[in-house]
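Researcher: We're teaching a course module on how sequence relates to structure. For the next exercise, students receive a sequence and then see the predicted structure as tokens, so they can try to spot secondary structure elements on their own. Here is the exercise chain.
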Amino acid sequence: MDCWSTENATNAFLTTLKMGERGKAPDVTEFISAMAGGNNSQLMVMACTGHPGSALLGLVAAAHQTGGRVVCILRSEEEMHAIKETLILEDYAKFVEFVIGDDVKTLLASNYEGADFVLIDCKLEDFQQVFEAAQQGVSVKSAFIVGYNALDERHKLSFDHKGYFLPIGEGLLVSKIRVLEGKSIGVGRRSHWVVEVDECTGEQHLYRVSTSPNTN
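Model: And here is the predicted structure for the students to work with:
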């Protein structure tokens, strides 16, 4: 679905808050969930270097809202069992399809080219190659490619990622790709995120600002 759903974004955001019950201000998990939900994502794929943390729950919340599915790519069965034990406590593991594989780039290109939301751990050694493969493999009308844990890995972000760095949590690299007539187009130049900080509370507020492309 090539349209932004404010209702889905809001509901996914609120569902993630309830799932976490952390009793603190919203953070990167809720933001990820709102992006995936607002994009009406049907196939959400996550690639991480270890335990995915609460970000995986954010995708599960979005999938509940959109009716989509969640795939988590891990490097070993040991990681999978550890994560399942954690998620089973909250009964969410059954909503995630776990896949074991070292070659994330190939998996994305061959098995999940229809993904419309890809969440990638910037700590992956081959992060740039994986991120670019995810961008190039987009075959749906609109997709988000997002890198998390970007703050400590900014040295890996020197390539032309066609996205924006957002100082939320441990940092996010956000790129939106649209496909038009068989060509992938990074639309980062047509929209951007504005971050404002409330000086009294310290809370971060983010606004998605879109601009029309120039026409000749």
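Model: If you want an answer key for the exercise: The two ends are 28 Å apart (CA to CA). The first strand starts at residue 43 and ends at 47.
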